[in-house]
Structure formats: C-alpha cells, structure tokens
Design brief:
Aminopeptidase; alpha+beta
Length: 160
C-alpha cells in the first residue's frame, strides 16, 4: 500500500468513497442529504488542505484530510479550537478490514509528529470511535451532530 498526496483530479473519487463509506453504516438517505456538503471533496479543497490517498495496486482505496484551524469558532453548537484537525478519514467499504485505516493513521502520526504538532483532534463518526481509540486517540466528550438529537465523539491524538 502507498499513501501519497492527493491531486485535484482525485476529488470525484474521494467524494464517492466518502458517500460509500457513510452508506456502509446504513445511515438513512436523509442523513446523507444533510451531510452532502461535508462529504463532497472539491478540487479546491484538495489544493487548500492536506489530503492524502491510500492506494493498493494503483487503486485508490481510502483517503484522509487534515485542516489547520487558525482561529477558534463555533459550528453546530461545538467549539472548534485553533489547531490541527483530522477532518476526513474514509476507506472504501470493499477494503474495510484490510488495515487501510490503520496505515493512514500511521502516516498521519508520522507526518504531523515530524512537523512538531502536539495534538490532532477529530469529530468522529460514532461507528469509528473504537477504531480511533485502538489507534491511539483518546476520547474527550460527546458533541452535538449536524443531525438533530444525535451526538458525535470528540477525540484527540496527543504526541508525547
């Protein structure tokens, strides 16, 4: 498996992986409609952020993106603090269970630790909480989701 920087032309396939990954958890179509903007990766998003793709035998099987938040702000009743945030991490469902996510977390740790980052936060899908905890992220608290009546876990990866 290789993990390399995404290129703008990857936007369409990354968006497709985002939606297939969410559908894997059998979320209703109404949720997917609410998340449409969040799950859509544009060419500009790739150019403006740190986006890496995982490939197996030259097939794009997953991706993750990291954003740098320069100022604290409020989003859906959640305070997003200044710092480095893991915004997306998705694996094509066909490759779930094949250590793609684990490899991407390893890559994330290496890159950001080398850059002197002390913590990375993520508002994770509730179904992914166990994955993140298994890969070194610590649970902080539940936060309101963009879906009314639903929460999402806030987790943090701290470098020692």
């Amino acid at each position: 498996m290789k993990i390399i920087p995404a290129v703008a032309n990857d936007a369409h396939i990354l968006t497709a992986i985002s939606f297939r990954s969410k559908k894997y958890w059998q979320y209703p179509d109404e949720y997917l409609a609410i998340w449409a903007d969040e799950l859509t990766v544009t060419e500009q998003y790739i150019l403006d952020n740190y986006v890496f793709v995982a490939t197996k035998n030259d097939v794009l099987v997953g991706y993750y993106s990291v954003v740098e938040v320069k100022e604290d702000f409020e989003m859906a009743a959640v305070r997003i603090e200044k710092g480095i945030w893991l915004e997306h991490m998705f694996v094509d469902p066909e490759y779930i269970g094949q250590k793609v996510g684990t490899a991407m977390v390893g890559h994330l740790k290496t890159i950001w630790q080398q850059r002197g980052v002390r913590t990375i936060r993520v508002l994770a899908d509730p179904n992914a909480r166990g994955f993140y905890e298994k890969n070194g992220f610590g649970y902080i608290r539940e936060c309101p989701s963009t879906i009314v009546g639903r929460t999402t876990p806030l987790l943090e990866l701290a470098f020692g």
